Amino acid sequence: MVVARGIRGGETCSIARTVDVLKDPWAFLVLREAFGGVTRFSDFRARLHIASDVLSDRLSALVTAGVLVREHYREAGSRPREEYRLTEAGDELRPVLAALQQWGDAHLPAECGPTVLWRHRETGELLEVAFVDADGRRVARADAVGERTAAYPA
Amino acid sequence: MVVARGIRGGETCSIARTVDVLKDPWAFLVLREAFGGVTRFSDFRARLHIASDVLSDRLSALVTAGVLVREHYREAGSRPREEYRLTEAGDELRPVLAALQQWGDAHLPAECGPTVLWRHRETGELLEVAFVDADGRRVARADAVGERTAAYPA
Questions:
Q1: Structure pTM?
Q2: Chain A contact for B154, CB < 8 A?
Q3: What CATH number does the domain containing A113 carry?
Q4: Residue A5's pLDDT is what?
Q5: Model confidence over A1-28: pLDDT tens digits?
Q6: B7 partner at 20 to 30 Å CA-CA among A90, A103, A105, B24?
Q7: pLDDT of B154 strictly over 70
């Protein structure tokens, strides 16, 4: 577990801490590939057209943030290599990235249209990201209220 | 409607475009206050302890991004003043910020605990942000698949 330091408001603001992980464009491009099943350094590099040192740096940052874990594998006749797998925390970034994407597609649309659509694995139905209650039912945005706790800065 | 330019990957990646709006820590601190009902320049300044020129700059950036709209009001005996109200697009950032917050609270927790909890306005029930289908039912993260469209960069 990482406690982010040196981020403005990061001591108390969890939004600041999450944005700090995601604000580098390469970070979420790497994550997008990881969600798509990419694990190997060479595959990330080939898909992202990114310099090795930059990729290495970003992968390490995501490992430090607890989003990816570095593992070793060895194919017959080859030297040992590293691969990067999503942790549970990393996988939980799916709806976070989908929420960012959904807003961008709705309010800052690209001329070419959305590049990714989220669908149900089995039914193919289009999905959205929204507030839900404990019973798993969607709650209208206007009914969601952010309540400050005692930890909220004075 | 704004089409973001000059953002790496921003032409095609809606995540990059949304993060570009949110990556400045002041941007989401301003938004947090706006969700809490703050509209006046002086109230934002008093709550955020922020220099006037920095605040003015961030408010203008959020107006340009289509998240806030600048309006004028005049109280009896005072000079006209400006206030800033959330647009529909701005209000739709609620679940986006809640998703970022939820992840940060779960995976990069602060010692003091969460500063904001999202609750149902009427029932007080704790809410989460998650994938939902067209019927408004929660969909497990493992069942949500990001499918690339024809617009996805080769």
A1: 0.85
A2: no
A3: 1.10.10.10
A4: 44
A5: 344 444 555 666 788 788 778 777 788 7
A6: A90
A7: no
Contact B122 A143 (CB under 8 A): yes
Identify all chain A residues contacting B47, using CB atoms and an 8 Å cutoff: none
pLDDT at residue A154 above 70?
A: no
- Choose the closest CB to B136 out of A117, A137, A146: A137
Mutate to test the interface with B, among A131, A141, A152 (most CBs of B within 10 A): A131
Domain encompassing residue B26: 22-87
List beta partners, residue B83. B40, B71
The verdict on B138 and B111 lying in the same domain is yes
Q: Are A96 and B103 in contact (CB under 8 A)?
A: yes
Q: Is A111 on the interface with B (CB under 8 A)?
A: yes
Residues 6+ apart with CB under 8 A from B135: none
Distance of CA A46 to the CA centre of its chain: 20
B9 vs A: CB within 8 A: yes
Side chain identity, residue B89: A
Amino acid A10: pLDDT? 62
In chain A, the number of structural domains is 1
Supply B10's token pair: 């921003």
Residue at B149 is within a domain: no
Query: Each residue of B108-153: pLDDT tens digit?
Result: 888 888 888 999 999 999 999 999 999 999 999 999 998 888 887 7
* DSSP tag of A33: H
Does residue B99 sit in the same domain as residue B82? no
* B9 in a structural domain: no
Residue A152 located in a structural domain: no
Specify if B150 maps to a domain.
no
Chain A interface includes B54 (CB < 8 A): no
Determine whether the interchain pair B129/A129 forms a contact, defined as Cβ–Cβ distance below 8 Å.
Answer: yes
